[in-house]
Structures are given as structure tokens and as C-alpha cells.
# Entry
Amino acid sequence: MTRIAGHLLVECLIVQGVSHAFGVPGESYLAVLDGFHAHADRIRFITNRQEGGAAFMAEAQGKLTGRPGVCFVTRGPGATNASIGLHTAFQDSTPMVLFVGDVASDARDREAFQELDYSSFFGPSTKGMAKRVERIDDARRIPEYVARAFATAMNGRPGPVVLVLPEDMLMQQVDAEPLPRVEPVQAWSDPGALRELRTLLLASERPLVIAGGGGWTPQAAAALQRFAENWQLPVANALRFQDTFDNHHPLYAGDVGLGINPALARRVRECDLLIALGPRLGEATTSNYTLVEVPLPKQKLVHIHASAEELGRVYQPVLAINATMNAAARSLEVLSAPPTLPWTAWTEACHADHLANVDPANGGIVLPGSIDMPALIHTLQKHLPADAVLTNGAGNFASWMHRFFQYHGLAKGHKTQLAPTNGAMGYGVPAGIAASLLTGRTVFTIAGDGDFLMNGQELATAVQHGGKSIVLLLNNSSYGTIRMHQEREYPAHVSGSGLSNPDFCALARAYGYAAERITHTAEFEPALQRALAAPGGSLIEVLLDVDVITTRGTLSAIRQNAQNSQRGTTM
# Structure
């Protein structure tokens, strides 16, 4: 069958199982847009309001489905706007394919209108934004390039791929056919390495597992749970992968990331066998490489990762196992354990530390103002369904969710957390909308005032395409994280972090969301219930005192600590 190349490209996506593609339309790929029109009964093109929001939605799609999220942007400014989502996918190990409409072939290398060297801009590199960057010059090879992009995005360490589409190539007549659906390759653990791991476990007294990273499936998470139960191992989740292991499980030890529970930090330092199952062990997960020292950890480190290139790149483990998460967890669950284990008291203590940390009564948190943030999160836990998707961007506001909300594990069948490990602001709102469109489940987004305005325009996308999310907007008229650092490093020298905000409720209503503002804790529960019952999206604005910036104290405490430090004392 002969048709234009843009239509063939859409057919290739359909064969790969893509149901939604996100993007901002551009004249450079009109032929693809016409392909979406021709196949509208099998695939939806979601029109975004800014390429950064579109790329975040595609990244969320990759996290939710385990298959590449798909984003389309136009050349130059469109591609550079989308780079934030690509960087998030790279650091979060999320499969994603970014399609970039490009200048026509006969205008290339003349600095044509919006022309850009995408290979130089996006990578590929171990420190770049993409695993592979390729340009399709021959329309007959579209199936080959698309299949390779999907395979590259999913295999090894998952990540993003960029395919560049010259405008004239997309308009060529072509009779090629899509290639079959690509499935990720499963790399299995070496049997000898598994025997060595069992020997290390039998010699241990204080083992600890840190699970996270990309490539997890419900089946892999369930296998991890069985492995932990067989060996009575305490399991912690890596930064913003808090749904890898069920937070309600008696073996759960907490999350290892920003604002880590000090008791858990001590457990990580004191453990004699650290099994890192999936995470890269990056800067945030290791508290700036202090919990696990570089390059030779004090703990015996077993690092299990889908990418052989990642093993030994930063840390030198005593045992490195190259395996995908699905294969690794299924290998571990059949690893036979002895009838008695010497560390059951250690495991119970790890879980007790976690329970104490999430109990507001034990936190010593006295907040200025009339809003009790731990109580708000407790209300969320009470009313949100178990399969709800929770999303956030970056900022101190997210620490409330990370500390006090108990995520249901992926082993129960659903991914429930979408958050950027690279600390990208503006992620939560578009990610939540994507989750709503893709799953139809309840979606809750927590955002700060600065974070919200980076992609709040995507509420219009939700309304246009039938998405529904609940946005809890914490408004303290400040870039709170920066203000916190300023208060610590330059006390009383606040500069550049204050914000003058719009009327967020009026703004949300203008987009088509219901909206209300609360100023007292007691007002939140009925507001949440109204939002859950509403037919469309809702925004709940919470006015916070600017001093409420962390889960562990206030600005006044930070100021006092700084003053004490100058006097040679500490709090």
C-alpha cells in the first residue's frame, strides 16, 4: 500500500502499541498530523500548550506503561523547549521517544529557519539527554528507525531516544510496512553471581535493600516482595521511586532521598551488606555520596542494574550483577533462605524507624500559620483510592508527600507515583494530566506556587481532551527551596526568591477547572471530597506562611541554627 511517509510513521506507532502521542503542532511535521487524523480511531494526538509540558506528559507515559512515551515537537525552539522532559527521562531511566520535525533536506546546513544540530544538542552521551539521536532521510527506512528507537529506549537502562524528521521526507510516497511490535530484552542474573549473593547474605548481620530505578513491572515488584519476605530483608525505596515496594509492608524501611529520615540514614551507613536493586545510586539517593562513599563503600555493596555500563561507573561493588529488574527479581525470589536469620531484630527496628518518621506526633513539627501539613497528607491517605496516581514537581512542598504519604506498591498492579528524580520543576501538573488521560484513575498533584506556574497552562490541555486531576497548590509566595538555602547560607539576605502571584483560583477557573482557596486545616477534607466528586478537574489552593518550607522545621529554626553555628554551638 502506498501512502505518504507521515502516515506510515503513525502506523508504526500504532503497531508499537502507542495509544496517545503528546505534542505541540508544527509546520515541519504536518504530514504526521495528517496521519493522526487518518488513524484517529486508533491513536490520539494530545495537543499541548508548551513543548516542556508535552515532553513531561510523554515521560509520565513511559513511567506508567513501561513502554516509550511519545512526544512530537517542531524544529529549533520546539525541540529545545522539550529538552527538559528529555533530561528527566534520561536521569529517571524512563523509556521515551522524541520526534522532532526538521527543516527540509535541501535547506540543511545553511542555518535555515529554526535549524539546529540535534546530535550536538541532545547527545548521545552518558551525561547527555538521549541514548541515541538519529535522522531519517529515507522514508522507506521509517519502520527500521522506529523499531530501533523503541528497542533502544527500553533495553538496558531505559531512556530517551530522539528521531529527527526532515519535512520533505515525511511527504514522500512510500510502500514500506511497519515492523512488528518490539519487546524489551530480559537480561538474566548469572547463576554464579546469585550463589555469591547468597553467600554474602548468609555472612551478613545487618543487610539492607534499596530498590528503585527504571524498568520495574508489577510482576518484578511482586517478586521483590517475595524475595524480601523469604529473607526477612528491610527494603528502602530510592528517591522518587517510593512505589517500588509497598510502604505499608512490615519490611518497609522508608525512602532514601531528599530529606531522608536521619534514623534511616544511620541504618544505611551501619548496614554491612547493601543490595542496590535498580537505582544508579546517584547524588540525591546517597546524600551527596556520603551514605555510600565513593569509590569504595564501607558497606559490602551488591549492585544489580540493567546496564552493564552503569556497574562500576561510580561505585566499586563487591558483586555486580547485570540484569533487568523483571529478571533479577524473579531470580532472587527463588534464592533459598535458611530457616532462621540473625537480623530479624534489625529488620523490625528499620520498620519501626519508618513508622516513627511518618507519625506526625513523633515529628516534633510545630508549624507557623493555620495549616497542619501532616494532617492534610493524612486526609489524602484516608480518601484517595489505593490505585490513585500521585504526582509532583520539584520543591520543598513535595517533601510533605514524600515523608507522610504511604504509597501502595507496584506489586499491587499499579504505578502510583510520578515524580522527577532530576528535580525538574513544573513536572507534576502535566504528568498528572497524562496519567488521567492514559489510565482514567484518580490523579492527585501537589504543586508549589513557583512550580505550578511553570506548566499550569496544561490545565487547558486537560479540559480540551477530557482529563481530570486534582491539584493541591501550596502558595507561600516564594521559591521555597531556594529561600531555605538562602536562610542557611546567607541568613537574612533574601534575594530573588520572593514571588508576586496571580489569583490562582481565578486562573484555574479560566482554564475550566473548579477552584477554591483554604486557609485552615479543617477546610481541606470537605474541599478534597468535593474535588473527588466533581466531574472535571479541581484546584485547591492552600495559603502557607513563608516559614513553612521543610518537613523538619521552619525558617526561624534555620536562622537560629545559623546563629548558633556562628557562636560555635549547634541545635
User: Anything to note?
Assistant: The first helix runs from residue 5 to 15. The first strand starts at residue 3 and ends at 4. Confidence is low (pLDDT under 50) at residues 550-571. The radius of gyration is 24 Å.
